[in-house]
Amino acid sequence: MRGGLKAREARLAFWMLLPTFSIVIAIVILPVIANFWIAFKPIQLGDLRPPKPAVRESVRAQPKAAGEVLEVRYRIQNRTDNPITWARFTDELAPGLRPVELPDACHVAGALLTCELPGGLAPKKTVNLEVRFVAGSDYFAAGAPYPRDSRPRVESRAPNPILSKPFTVQNFASVLTDPDFWPMLKVTLAYTVFGTVLSILLGLFAAQLLSPPFAGRQVLRGLFLFPYVAPVIAVAFTWVFLLDPFAGTINA
């Protein structure tokens, strides 16, 4: 009977602690694994998201009367160092525009212009697509809207650099061969070692001074503990205000 009760208590404790374990794994362990994964990938901050093309629309010729040509150029750019495998954009056309010259990558269905690049875009590549329309009377009846009033909607597919690029130690080699790395490491170690040692020694010295009873000991103990309970943000802003080079109390 006692064995069965212990087993039920163990299962109950497991299910009660499972949410805590899940939160710890999601908040602490998974980001650590992600950081190690990224450290061995030849990527930069801009590679954390899949690349997307940038589409810029420019008007080359604006019609002044019915029957004249409206010429629009779409400039599609891949500004990243990663390839885009497929891209497409759509743009809403103003009423009264009839296409007369379209690139092979584009077609018009109703009032919607669609241009597709099935081969995608290589890194740092730019593609220009020029589209020509004839403006009818409906175009001017609608107030001759400027084509750039409607922004193209872009869709694309590209491999995620975090998953697609190979593992390498290039990042570590770049850091270790950087001429500023070793001086910064020395400064960091100096602050770590001397800061820790001095804080322990000064803390022990202050504790010994405040250990014997004397008048005002409780007040001094409270003052020593104040930095531990003061909000970090408030203390940081206080020092920023005091050391401000223009209006600071100390550094002005």
Automatic annotation (TrEMBL):
Q: How does it sit in the membrane?
A: Multi-pass membrane protein
- The superkingdom of the source organism is Bacteria
The record ties this protein, via SUPFAM superfamilies, to: MetI-like
Q: Which UniProt keywords apply?
A: Cell membrane, Membrane, Transmembrane, Transmembrane helix, Transport
Give the stretches traversing the membrane: 12-40, 189-210, 222-242
InterPro entries with a match to the protein in the record: ABC_transporter_permease (IPR051393), MetI-like (IPR000515), MetI-like_sf (IPR035906)
GO cellular component terms, alphabetically, are:
plasma membrane
> Where's the ABC transmembrane type-1 domain?
185-252
Instruction: Kindly list the places in or outside the cell where this protein is found, as annotated in its UniProt entry.
Output: Cell membrane
Q: Which PANTHER family match?
A: ABC TRANSPORTER PERMEASE PROTEIN, INNER MEMBRANE ABC TRANSPORTER PERMEASE PROTEIN YCJO
> Under which name does UniProt file this protein?
Sugar ABC transporter permease
